[in-house]
Design brief:
- 2 copies of one chain form a homodimer.
- Chain A has 396 residues and is an alpha+beta fold.
- Chain A folds into 2 domains: 266 residues, L-amino peptidase D-ALA esterase/amidase (4-Layer Sandwich), CATH 3.60.70.12; 119 residues, ArgJ beta chain, C-terminal domain (Ubiquitin-like (UB roll), Roll).
- Helix content of chain A is 32%, strand content 30%.
- In chain A, the strands form 2 sheets. In chain A, strands 1, 2, 3, 4, 5, 6, 7, 8 and 10 form a 9-stranded mixed beta sheet that branches. A 7-stranded mixed beta sheet of chain A has the order 9-16-11-15-12-13-14, sandwiched between helices.
- In chain A, helix 1 packs across helix 2, helix 6 packs across helix 7 and helix 8 crosses helix 10.
- The longest helix of chain A is centred in the middle third of the chain and has 21 residues.
- Chains A and B meet through helix 2, helix 9, helix 10, strand 14 and helix 12 of A and helix 2, helix 9, helix 10, strand 14 and helix 12 of B.
């Protein structure tokens, strides 16, 4: 597999993108479009938040269309908590862009990110669609990745090329999000394209699998957005068909894109100074392992200790114990970057100096072994810093 | 009911207390004892954390004794994550104090709070027990309340006197905790005494009820300590018996003590600048209401907005939606101090200025109505400030 951290959604054949400022934000790109030249098989995974945003409701319906032509994304306004008017506004945008692309509104997916509870300025969007369509080009993948950002501090693109027995296929992805959720001015969005030829039901299955192993394994602040969406378009321009025979290799590529983008989101987590991988091992079920890893990754006390460079095994023990999983604390082992720090439930003989040195690093791995089974799970997170508080106290 | 915010566990008749520095902390009181002159009926409610501390394991057993004579508490060391040695140390302390009080070790309850994962300096404790017993006096309730503190910034005492048909009874309580959990240097502990005469099984039932409605309704940072304990001793010195007839009035008094102490803990939450009450109303079940209230009270994004004085209804909507309770977002109403801010899922017509003024206050009530049933629940919490991060980044 060839990997590229400087290519994105227009790297696969048959995709064009465009981006511009339509006036939702005072400055900077805020409206973006990605188009599949041939109508594409599409799949999507959306937020589980009950108060999901209007564009999520619309895209959940449209993604079930036989084919999808394009995805229209705006930043600066989430079109969430906007009631029926919000849904009508999203539908209006879909109609307006569909008319210009000569397709049905149901062939358009919509995503929005930005402030919640404020009506979408749909006229600003509609007024810019002619120019947006004129700008469509395979060269504009990077502008797309820029236009969807909010509190993010860097663009998030990744692409790969996979050699299958029946030919080469490409997958490209772009994401935004400076945390699992920042419902005021942000959200996690990811858009993936591929020139593989693939049945949409099969695509949906592969996307769910990849999302569960990647985007669903990150947490910045344990909050869940009203707008989170991951969408994929498979245009088929490579003419290489994905089937059960070459599925594994294609999925490897898709997993790579999703994992790289998911990790970029955590590294760009609001106020993050450290990237932390938390693995729970030796559990009876994967669900138990997941609960333990998340309990540690979401604990404010563990996260502030990570920020402060404090090798606070006591807090990790506390977070493991409160996860809601029964286990024998006398069998609990905890490793920090492979240094055994807690053995059989109590501090190991390892020197404090050596343990402390792990916490001065930028990337930290916490491994928890409860030694009662074979299942494991990993969650990626970041620390909790003064800057997280700074970023989130302002009303905008 | 007469209420006193300057009286504590020695206000009920028949109780004595003592406190001193035994050398676990460099300075300040760190060892305390409360004694019931007549052996008391006892009850306790303890942490659900799987990695519970040695004194919790011991007290969970001893609280089932027919009678309890005293509670011995140390601060500065939690005796948690200390394995079998930790349990033996707690049992040793119980034996040493029981010998001096001429009772069985099973008539002693033990509680510890402080650093996790470090062996208990039991010799320091044992070496101070003679002096501690000599100091026992009804005048030393306040010293007891001081000796159990760690990161707390003030002492937490409350007492009341209740007139029942068959006589007067007194209840006194003391608590510590600067958050639901600070496993490194803190924990939530509460000790309650009463001179009422009451069967221990009945006492246990009343305590569970009171704790569920008070201490279990507070959250500072969503973490659950390895050491949390609430214990009550009923000595019977008033000779007034509690039965099903006067139960309600006694429970009212117990609830008052528990609620006042619980609110003091939140107000003294690590870095707290605001006291916030979150109520979910109109839910189908109490469990649904509890999930919604907790989801809002624990959301880092809601808590930072509260700190910043930002009336961010979008974040509250997000936190309600992620609670795991199904409801119709078009029926969601949200009030900030009785100002209807979100009506039927969208921003109400109320002026931003008026809504903002609520968030400048020190006490804020958030009321969420999902209008789909009759059940409700309240959770008390505080904001998330820079100081919370400051307090929790240091290794001690």
């Amino acid at each position: 597999m060839k990997k590229f951290n400087d290519k994105g959604i227009t790297y696969p054949k048959g995709f064009k993108a465009a981006a511009l400022n339509c006036g939702i934000k005072d400055a900077g790109l805020d409206l973006a479009l990605v188009l599949s030249e041939s109508p594409a098989a599409a799949a999507g995974v959306f937020t589980k938040n009950v108060c999901c945003a209007a564009p999520v409701i619309l895209s959940k319906n449209h993604v079930n269309s036989e084919k999808v032509k394009a995805i229209l994304v705006n930043s600066g306004n989430a079109n969430a908590a906007t009631g029926k008017q919000g849904y009508n506004d999203a539908a209006y945008c879909a109609e307006e862009i569909a008319f210009r692309l000569k397709c049905e509104p149901t062939e358009i997916l919509i995503a929005s990110t930005g402030i919640i509870g404020v009506p979408l300025p749909k006229e600003k969007i509609a007024g810019s669609l002619d120019k947006l369509v004129d700008n469509l080009s395979p060269e504009n993948g990077e502008s797309f990745s820029e236009a969807i950002l909010t509190t993010d501090t860097f663009k998030k693109e990744f692409a790969c090329e996979i050699q299958l027995e029946n030919g080469k296929v490409r997958i490209g992805g772009v994401a935004k999000g400076s945390g699992m959720i920042m419902p005021d001015l942000a959200t996690m969005l990811a858009f993936i394209t591929t020139d593989a030829k693939i049945d949409r039901h099969f695509l949906c299955e592969l996307l769910r699998d990849a999302v569960n192993k990647t985007f669903n394994r990150i947490t910045v602040d344990s909050d869940t957005s009203t707008n989170d969406s991951v969408m994929i378009l498979a245009g088929g321009a490579s003419s290489v068909e994905i089937n059960s025979g070459n599925k594994k290799r294609f999925l490897d590529g898709l997993l790579t894109i999703c994992e790289e983008l998911a990790k970029m989101i955590v590294k760009d987590g609001e106020g993050a100074t450290k990237f932390v991988s938390v693995t729970a091992q030796g559990c009876q079920t994967e669900s138990d392992a997941d609960k333990i890893a998340r309990s540690v990754a979401n604990s404010p006390l563990v996260k502030t200790a990570l920020y402060g460079g404090d090798p606070n095994w006591g807090r990790v023990i506390m977070a493991v114990g409160k996860a809601g999983v029964l286990f024998d604390q006398d069998k609990l082992d905890i490793y920090f970057n492979d240094i055994l720090t807690v053995k059989s439930g109590v501090k190991s003989g390892e020197s404090l100096e050596k343990i402390k040195s792990v916490f001065e690093q930028k990337e930290i791995e916490i491994k928890i072994c409860i030694n009662s089974g074979e299942a494991n799970a990993t969650v990626w997170t970041c620390d909790l810093s003064h800057k997280y508080v700074d970023i989130n106290i302002d009303y905008n």
